[in-house]
Amino acid sequence: MRVTGLGFRRGVSAESLRAAIGLVGLGEALATAEDKVREPGLVRLAQDLGVQILGISRHDLQAQGVEGSARVMAAYGTGSVAEAAALAAAGPGARLVQPKLSGPDGMAVAALAETLMQRGQA
Prior knowledge:
By secondary structure, the protein is an alpha/beta fold. It is 35% helix and 26% strand.
């Protein structure tokens, strides 16, 4: 399973999110911090793309052990919401396929994670 993780500023547009996703690739779902799942730009983009939005708790973001921004660490307990959300949503054993990249306008950051199917799984 592949998941695109997103970190973004409040009021982000669907176009800004789309540009960031274009740099890393689109997974089967979009994941971000649970307090941002109702952002209008994100909701619109998910509808346009036909993918689900997964809200990741602060606890699950922290559990990923991702380094990065001190500002993001203070707010969410992880250095990158995009990377941590992608890893958490992709599940146990997930790895980053594409580390975080910032969109052209600096309003959104995206990362792509995947979980490989283990033997014995369908």
